[in-house]
Amino acid sequence: MNSLNSEAFVLFGQHILWSDMVGNLFGLAALALGWRRSIWTWPVQFLAGLILFGAFFGHLTGSAGKQAVVMVVALYGWWQWQRGKEQGGDGHIAVRFATWRERAAMVAAAAVGTVAVALLFKAYPTLSWDPWPDAYIFVGTIVAMYAQARGMVEFWFAWLLVDLVGVPLNFANGYAFSGFVYVIYGALVLWGLRDWWLRSRQAARPTLEGAPA
Question: What parts of the sequence cross the membrane (predicted)?
Answer without folding.
Answer: 12-34, 46-79, 104-124, 136-162, 174-193
